[in-house]
Amino acid sequence: MKYAMIHDMEKCIGCQGCTIACRSENAIPDGYFRLKVKVDGPKGEFPNLSFNYVRHSCEMCEHTPCVTVCPTHASFMDENGIVDINADVCVGCLYCVVACPYNARYVNPLTNVPDKCNFCKHTHLKQYGEPACVAVCPTDALIFGDLDDPLSPIFSYLANKPFVTNKPHLGTKPKLFVVPNKKGGVVL
Ligand code: SF4
Ligand code: SF4
Ligand code: SF4
């Protein structure tokens, strides 16, 4: 499988339900995050204001600078395309934190090991088949699935909606796709 996610900015209302679910599901320490939804705006003149809600999390790159620089293979991509961290063989050099062009990793102050979104691989995905953020989103702005499966919802979604990826010029090929908000544009 090749797991991927879409953030549809047309549907996102910035409620932060996904960020709260992520923190709870993955026991993220206070002051740190795997997932943020940033508010871009307001834009325009009152009362015709618009907002843009921008997801910030690991982009699940196909070409992974974080994995390339890791000297111990603690950073790796699994058989389902999820970029993950094996804390048991991490030596805490933080090369991966520096190499990530999306600033997606933080260092867990309790373990001194880098951490980031892994699609809830060991938690909600394992138990319920989808990440916690996807499960709680009230507007279905997050779509999760398998890019290798033509029957997966993510497959037909990408076939029918215009989408962009973050910093495509870097050649990292993110598997986090973004459907732009027509009112507010897209800021990544
Ligand atoms: S966004 Fe950063 S941490 Fe995530 S796969 Fe890409 S380089 Fe690695
Ligand atoms: S901090 Fe750990 S996971 Fe990151 S590059 Fe160093 S050994 Fe690899
Ligand atoms: S839960 Fe859904 S609607 Fe709310 S901020 Fe997250 S993606 Fe947007």
From TrEMBL:
It comes from the Bacteria. Pfam families: Fer4_11. The keyword Transmembrane helix does not apply. PROSITE patterns: 4FE4S_FER_1, 4FE4S_FER_2. GO terms for molecular function: 4 iron, 4 sulfur cluster binding; metal ion binding. This is Polysulfide reductase chain B. It comes from Helicobacter valdiviensis. SUPFAM superfamilies: 4Fe-4S ferredoxins. Residues 3-32, 47-80, 81-110 form the 4Fe-4S ferredoxin-type domain. Keywords: 4Fe-4S, Iron, Iron-sulfur, Metal-binding. The keyword Plastid does not apply.
